[in-house]
Design a protein that fits this description.
Layout (H helix, E strand, L loop, with lengths): L1 H19 L3 H30 L9 H50 L2 H6 L2 H43 L1 H10 L1 H37 L1 H6 L3 H27 L1 H25 L5 H42 L21 E8 L8 E8 L4 E5 L6 H8 L7 E6 L2 E2 L5 H6 L1 E4 L8 E2 H5 L8 H10 L3 H5 L8 E2 L8 H15 L3 E5 L7 H15 L3 E5 L11 E6 L2 E6 L1 H7 L2 H10 L2
Parallel strand pairs: 3-10, 3-11, 6-9, 9-10
Antiparallel strand pairs: 1-2, 1-4, 4-5, 7-8, 11-12
Helix pairs in contact: 1-11, 2-3, 2-5, 2-11, 3-5, 3-11, 5-6, 5-7, 5-11, 6-10, 7-9, 7-10, 7-11, 10-11, 15-17, 19-20
């Protein structure tokens, strides 16, 4: 288990370094500035020691020496401050450029993931990885750039200066200091899994929050507030517990190392005092040495804190890379085919498909949709209606069999080319944030004003759009803003009417619209469907009476096929569904 964890950490660290590599010139410049600022900082105690020696003799103060030392001290401090400002600016640029690249790659990969992965993972957890985990990674990375190298150089530089002053007392410091490193490493090695658990639990909490905010009306409608709060409280309590545990153990690093550093300082002071009494050191040199002893031990505290933060950052980076390691969709063929003329001739030949291999859904499905034909798909919930639409759109690929459009297998086409030939209006509306004009022209950004208005009129959306404060320039926020579900669906219909592709898919397209408006839109649909292959998924059987072909599905299989009247005469599954709706 430990070997697997270490291998994962090493792999995560290597991938992180690959993201940092493009910023190498700025990193080297930052390291140079850090090196110079550390040298200047370490030179200041030497100047202070000389100044003290210049006024330590009884009855004599060397004001000339004192003035020179003070001027040099001020100059060193001023240059150090300026270099530290530049270093901080460079470190920020390196960190956020790295994070930008990481988040951009993660977002791009998210769009290449198959729907199977997105359906199996909560959107809140994915959002937590993309936002909270990347932010935590940025904080750890910035702290590492800011303090890790500076601390290491400070330790080495201080050793050099201390050796030049007193090798014997330096030996005392070097012998005691490794205790601090041992304590820091021991605690940090035990906090990685704690921080990873904290990150995972935070993802669960984000998922619950995302669902609670998005479905607040539904929660209130079913009086489910207490259960939702209880669920949130349980995850929130677990997040509290694992966060406190991780923070507690990580916070032990600083006081433990400070205690050891205090012992080091006391040992140096005691050894230095004996050296002064024996004449081996001056008071000024002892002052410089004590300052170095303090500066030598201080980076160990900072580095121990940095190690803890880097453990947290690597845990978060691991979750981001885990998302990026998910296999993408099957790529489009290198030389995709396209029908010369798309007429809408869809054919399914002996198709097999299941979301879970252990639970077969669609088996031996064969179907032919002639160009211009209106095909209705009906059946009970969970019978495979929407699954069939997903296969036609290549949101999922078939396990076995073949789906072709005008003689060309859809897997031989690029997904974008296939989907350009299909217009969809779904039961669940999706509207991007923007103006009404942007929403309707989403399918054809180059459409003219007259075409947009004509599409809105055909969808019976023009009348309510005119009543909006800014008409077609009215901005609509996320998830449709203040528009009703019916108005949102009218805009989705107008969006498809603007593009008018050869194939239409209407999945409960009028489910959120009142009966009077639906009757008017059905007329618009009739003109829109003329000459186009149309797949209609419907629960209200009254809307599909005029379909050329009705498929009745049960458990992933087409159990009946025919027109409205021929299926009623069979007195089978369709007749049972129809009479169940209209028996009253």
């Amino acid at each position: 288990m430990a070997e697997k964890k270490n291998a994962f950490e090493r792999r995560t660290l290597r991938r992180t370094l690959r993201y940092i590599r493009p910023q190498l010139p700025q990193i080297l410049l930052s390291l140079l500035f850090s090196l110079v600022s550390v040298v200047l900082t370490l030179y200041v105690p030497i100047l202070i020691g000389r100044a003290i020696d210049g006024m330590a003799a009884a009855g004599r103060v060397d004001f000339s020496l004192l003035g020179t030392m003070l001027w040099r001290i001020v100059l060193c401090i001023g240059l150090t401050s300026l270099l530290q400002w530049f270093t901080g600016m460079l470190n920020n640029r390196v960190t956020y450029e790295t994070v930008r690249s990481l988040r951009q790659d993660a977002f791009n990969h998210l769009h290449s993931l198959p729907l199977k992965y997105l359906d199996a993972h909560s959107s809140g957890d994915i959002l937590s990885r993309m936002i909270a985990d990347v932010d935590t990674f940025a904080d750890g990375l910035l702290l590492g750039f800011t303090q890790l190298f500076t601390g290491a150089v400070t330790i080495l530089g201080t050793l050099v200066f201390m050796l030049s002053l007193s090798p014997l007392i330096t030996l005392v410091v070097v012998v005691l200091t490794p205790l601090s490193l041992f304590v820091a490493k021991y605690i940090a090695s035990h906090t990685y899994q704690m921080f990873r658990l904290q990150s995972v639990t935070r993802g669960e909490q984000t998922a619950i929050l995302n669902e609670a905010v998005g479905d607040l009306k539904l929660i209130r409608a079913f009086s489910h507030e207490e259960a939702t709060v209880a669920q949130f409280d349980e995850v929130n309590q677990r997040l509290r517990d694992c966060s406190l545990k991780a923070t507690f153990f990580s916070s032990l690093v600083n006081p433990c190392t400070r205690f050891i550093n205090a012992l080091v300082y006391a040992a140096v002071a005691l050894a230095g005092a004996f050296a002064v009494l024996s004449g081996g050191l001056t008071i000024g040199t002892l002052t410089s040495f004590l300052s170095y002893a303090n500066q030598y031990t201080k980076p160990f505290n900072e580095i121990s804190g940095v190690v803890t933060e880097l453990e947290n950052a690597l845990a978060c980076a691991g979750r981001i890379f885990d998302l990026m390691d998910q296999p993408p969709m099957e790529p489009d063929p290198p030389h995709p085919e396209e029908p010369e003329t798309v007429l809408g001739d869809f054919a399914l030949e002996d198709v097999f498909f299941s979301y879970d291999p252990a639970r077969p859904l669609i088996e031996h499905l064969s179907l032919r949709a002639q160009p211009g034909q209106r095909i209705a798909i009906v059946g009970p919930t969970g019978c495979g209606k929407t699954t069939l639409i997903n296969l036609l759109m290549r949101f999922y690929d078939v396990d076995q069999g073949r789906i072709s459009l005008d003689g060309v297998e859809t897997r031989s086409m690029s997904r974008s080319a296939l989907r350009r030939q299909i217009g969809m209006v779904l039961q669940d509306t999706w509207l991007p944030a923007g103006t009404i004009r942007d929403i309707i022209s989403f399918s054809r950004p180059e459409a003219s004003e007259e075409e947009i208005i004509a599409a809105a009129k055909a969808a019976h959306a023009h009348s309510f759009i005119r009543r909006l404060p800014q008409g077609y320039d009215t901005p609509i926020g996320e998830a449709g803003g203040s528009l009703s579900l019916g108005q949102q669906q009218l805009l989705c219909i107008a969006r498809v009417m603007l593009s008018l592709p050869p194939v239409l898919i209407l999945d409960e397209a009028t489910s959120s619209i009142d009966i009077m408006t639906e009757q008017r839109i059905q007329k618009a649909f009739l003109s829109m469907m003329a000459g186009r292959t149309t797949f209609i998924v419907a629960h209200r059987l009254s809307t599909i009476r005029n379909a050329d072909l009705i498929l009745v599905m049960e458990a992933g299989k087409v159990v009946e096929m025919g027109t409205h009247h021929s299926l009623l005469e069979k007195q089978g599954a369709y007749a049972r569904l129809y009479h169940a709706q209209f028996e009253q």
